[in-house]
Amino acid sequence: METSVTLQRAIELACLETIGRKTETMLLDDAAGRVLATNLASKVDDPRFDNSAMDGWAVRAADCKAEGTTLSIIGTSKAGGEAPPEVSTGGACRIMTG
C-alpha cells in the first residue's frame, strides 16, 4: 500500500473504487447518517417569519450620543408577535428575534 502519493495518483486510486448509485426507500427514523439521492425541500417555511441570529434593543441614535445615558424600557418586541411600540425620546424596546 502506498503511503505518500501525488494528487493525480490519489485521484486515480479514488476512481478505482466504484460508487454505488442504487437507491432505497426507508423510514426517516432509519435514515440517520445516510445521503439523499434527490433534493429535499420543505413545503412550509420554518420559522414562518424572517429572523436574525441576534437579540438586541431598538433605540433612537440621538439618545445614545452621550456616555452614561440612561433609557427607559418601553416594551418588548417578540419574533412573530405584534408590532413593537414606537420608540420615543429616552426609550428603548427589547428585540427578541427567536
Radius of gyration: 27 Å
Please trace the helix and strand order, writing H or E for each element: HEEE
For this structure, the quaternary state is single chain
Tell me the strand order in the biggest sheet: 1-3-2
Overall strand count: 3
Shape: elongated
Low-confidence stretches: none
Instruction: Give average pLDDT, whole number.
Output: 86
Tally of contiguous helical segments = 1
Helix content: 10-25%
Distance between the termini: 53 Å
What does it look like?
There is one protein chain. With 98 residues, the chain is an alpha+beta fold. It has a domain at 52-98. 10% of the residues lie in helices and 17% in strands. It has one helix and three strands; from the N terminus they run αβββ. It has one helix at 7-16; strands spanning 56-59, 72-78, 91-96. It has a three-stranded mixed beta sheet, with no helix packed on it. It is elongated, with a radius of gyration of 27 Å. The two termini are 53 Å apart. The model has no long low-confidence stretch (mean pLDDT 86).
